[in-house]
Design a protein that fits this description.
Layout: H1 36-43, E1 54-58, E2 61-63, H2 86-91, H3 95-102, E3 115-117, E4 119-120, H4 121-131, E5 135-139, E6 149-158, E7 161-162, H5 170-173, E8 177-184, H6 201-214, E9 218-222, E10 230-232
Parallel strand pairs: 1-5, 4-6, 5-9
Antiparallel strand pairs: 2-3, 6-7, 6-8, 9-10
């Protein structure tokens, strides 16, 4: 019986499908396919022999370089009222900067900061449709531990009207308004949890919300930087 092999496909590990030359946000893409199709074509794999396709996604969204990023939380601090006190300025800082710092979102080689934002389920659902995942690996859940409220992008609107799916036209994507679902944070440590039941109740609800929305089971959950910090359901 032939041995099983593991094939990984990603362009940057942060926003892989959006950087795919065919299905990504062209021209802000890499020079090759980054999804399942690229693995089949590049390695001459038979689709009949593929037993499992695991989609790896962070509990929030990141992107390297330019291009549209609808759920990005810009790292700016602008007061609503010029007479606001300094404390108000702190409250108005974008969550993207917090995600960036907690998640250590910097390029390993270049040190370049990654752009950060809330988890975009519109993109994830699109990725599921393209790559036919049998399960998901939701990583870095522990980075969300200190957020009192967590937003999740669940739809896009254009000129006030909801779009049925992820838009193929880049000019449309750049004009889209994001519709968010606000979920309660858990404000407790999930770091190092070894079983799903070990997670705070709202963390479990977050995971369940993701898998119910995209229709793919979250089989693996990353809860820290250590190799063993992984929940298998």
């Amino acid at each position: 019986m032939p041995a099983s092999i593991l094939v990984t496909r990603s362009s940057t590990g942060s926003n892989a499908l959006m950087l795919d030359i065919d299905y990504g946000t062209y021209p802000f893409v890499t020079s090759s396919p980054t999804g399942l199709g690229g693995a089949i074509d590049g390695l001459s794999l038979s689709p009949r022999n593929i037993k499992e396709v695991i989609g790896v996604v962070k509990a929030y969204t990141t992107r390297v370089g330019g291009g549209p990023f609808p759920s990005e939380q810009l790292n700016v601090c602008t007061p609503i009222n010029p007479r606001c006190c300094p404390a108000m300025l702190i409250l108005l800082q974008a969550d993207g900067e917090k995600l960036q710092k907690l998640g250590r979102e910097f390029g390993v080689t270049t040190g370049r900061k990654r752009r950060c934002g809330w988890l975009d389920l519109v993109v994830l659902k699109y990725s599921c449709a393209i790559n036919h995942y049998t399960s998901l690996n939701l990583t870095k859940l522990d980075i969300l531990d200190t957020f009192p409220t967590i937003k999740v992008a669940v739809a896009y609107k254009l000129d006030g009207k909801p779009l049925e799916s992820f838009p193929a036209d880049l000019s449309i994507l750049e004009r889209c308004e994001v519709v968010y679902e606000e979920l309660p944070g858990w404000e407790a440590s999930s770091a190092g949890a070894k079983a799903f039941t070990d997670l705070p109740a709202n963390a479990r609800k977050y995971v369940e919300f993701v898998e119910e929305f995209v229709g793919v089971k979250v089989k693996y959950i990353g809860t820290g930087v250590a190799r063993e910090a992984m929940i298998v359901r």
